[in-house]
């Protein structure tokens, strides 16, 4: 006798609500554990939910991971998104995945790291379509490094003004080492800026002068300029470089280096 496939009964909304309430209550009954165990808790929760709901109900619940296992499909995709896996920003675990992906990028403190993750996740999830991988891990790591340079620069400027030698040395070391971070070199090993000389007319006097102008740059082309400004202890030059290329104001207030947030 031919056997038919067993029917999968999809859970209705009330059943799903009861399942998630049971999962939530189960998690609340246990004391919180350190953050490094968070991924383990999420995996355990997913296992409980799968067992309770079943395959059909799990799909109905719309729970899936940001990990897709897919990489860049061609050279253009690699250029735009950088190397690494393409992530799905609409997934519920996207923030945790982003935090894990950039874990080796050095930030001055936990607050500046968490601030960047919060802002980046919010931006990535705007208009994100479930099931469409749109953010590359290589790009995320570079963006984190770019934000980290802003945070370290702000700390460096504050330490210089306050005469805090220890913090000054630490932040200066990080900024001068930033061009060599894997998160940076994986995306931009060249770190180059193309310059040209242009005639510039003063709008008031009408006088024409020749100026050296940057007209093109690789993504991290300004990182060596940051290092040079820090080594020279030139706050104004550092602020000008970051104002031009750093995108610092998107994430940080830059209290000690406000000119960089323009």
Count of spatially separate domains: 1
Number of strands: 5
Question: What portion of residues belong to β-strands?
Answer: 5-15%
Helix count, per DSSP?
A: 10
Q: Output the radius of gyration.
A: 24 Å
Structural class by SSE content: mainly alpha
SSE ordering: HHEHEHHEHHHEEHH
Write the layout of secondary structure elements.
Elements: H1 13-28, H2 38-61, E1 67-70, H3 75-81, E2 86-87, H4 94-101, H5 110-125, E3 135-136, H6 137-162, H7 165-177, H8 182-185, E4 193-201, E5 208-217, H9 223-231, H10 235-245
Antiparallel strand pairs: 1-2, 2-3, 4-5
Helix pairs in contact: 1-2, 4-5, 5-6, 6-7, 7-9, 9-10
Characterization of the model:
The protein has 262 residues and is mainly α. The N and C termini lie far apart (75 Å). A hairpin with a 6-residue loop joins strand 4 and strand 5 (208-217). It has one domain (67-262). The chain has helices at residues 13-28, 38-61, 75-81, 94-101, 110-125, 137-162, 165-177, 182-185, 223-231, 235-245, and strands at 67-70, 86-87, 135-136, 193-201, 208-217. The chain crosses the membrane at residues 42-64. Keywords: Membrane, Transmembrane, Transmembrane helix.
Which properties best describe this structure?
about 260 residues, mainly alpha, three-stranded antiparallel beta sheet, 10 helices, about 50% helix, about 10% strand, disordered N terminus
Give a brief description:
By secondary structure, this protein is mainly alpha-helical. It has 10 helices and 5 strands; from the N terminus they run ααβαβααβαααββαα.
